[in-house]
Amino acid sequence: MEKKNTRSKGIYIIPNMLTLGNLFCGFLSIISSLDGKFEMAAYYIILAAFFDGMDGRVARMTNSHSKFGVEFDSLADLASFGMAPALLIYLFALRAYGKLGWMVAFLFVAGGALRLARFNVLVDKAEKNFFTGLPIPSAATVVISYILIAIHYNWTDNWPGYKIILPIMMILISFLMVSNLRYFGFKELDLKKKKPFNLLVIAIIGIYIIVLNPQMLLFILSLLYLISGILSPLLFPLTGKEKVLKESAEQKNVIKAVK
């Protein structure tokens, strides 16, 4: 009697529960924005980013990758780092621009959706240590930390000019998400190995700064990460193998264009 090949229909619980935590935080952020609790909405998005970082790391540690997990993670990311921050920023500052305001907010959502769709298509072919385009959680962190600074320093009353910078920032970030710039992924970062003693000193200084002004530190770190992609050709030069693959892809595109 021949045995029938059956496919497992189960899912990995722990990483997907973390992804669900990401989605739940995004939902709470949307509710908070609609209630006018903008600072709370921003912190929910930051908490969602924590869950998003943990689910991938746990999946790699436990070897529990799955196609379902990739798709579920992308859907959660679009809600938590696309829809939630766009709604928050629109209600907080962009509504004053009228039609232009919601168009900028939608551009951010669309850029994030395209970024996630491209990632899912190329997930098996992408470089291990780098992302193509600014990751959507990082994009959300930049604008959310900017909002937290505006709230912390009461720019809504003291410096209305912050509203001018915000739409420009969102448009730039939207295009960075769909760009071909390379961003370091931290996937292969091994914290188990021994590190230089100076890193411990830097960590202590970082904790001290976090206590003093967490909003500013978060904005500076997220902004530096954004800039690192723009400078990626200088910071992360392509290896020989990567150059060959890139040149091969470019040649195929030229051939298709000629045909």
Sequence stretches where pLDDT stays below 50 over 5 or more residues:
1-7, 247-259
Please give the count of helices.
Answer: 11
Helix content: over 70%
CATH architecture: Up-down Bundle
Strand neighbour order, sheet with most strands: 1-2
**What is the first-to-last residue Cα distance?**
53 Å
Strand count, sense and barrel status of the largest sheet are: 2 strands, antiparallel
Q: What structural class do helix, strand and pairing data support?
A: mainly alpha
Global shape: globular
Write down the CATH topology: Four Helix Bundle (Hemerythrin (Met), subunit A)
Note down, in words, how this protein is organized.
- This protein has helices at residues 13-34, 38-61, 67-92, 99-121, 136-152, 155-158, 162-177, 197-212, 214-230, 232-235, 240-258, and strands at residues 130-132, 182-184.
- It is mainly alpha-helical and 259 residues long.
- It is globular.
- It has eleven helices and two strands; from the N terminus they run H-H-H-H-E-H-H-H-E-H-H-H-H.
- The longest helix has 26 residues, at 67-92.
- Helix content is 73%, strand content 2%.
- The protein has one domain: CDP-alcohol phosphotransferase transmembrane (TM) domain (Four Helix Bundle (Hemerythrin (Met), subunit A)).
- The protein has a two-stranded antiparallel ribbon with strand order 1-2.
Quick overview of this protein structure:
By secondary structure, the chain is an all-alpha fold.
Feature tags:
disordered N terminus, mainly alpha, 2 strands, Four Helix Bundle (Hemerythrin (Met), subunit A), globular, 11 helices, 259 residues, two-stranded antiparallel sheet, disordered C terminus, single chain, 2% strand
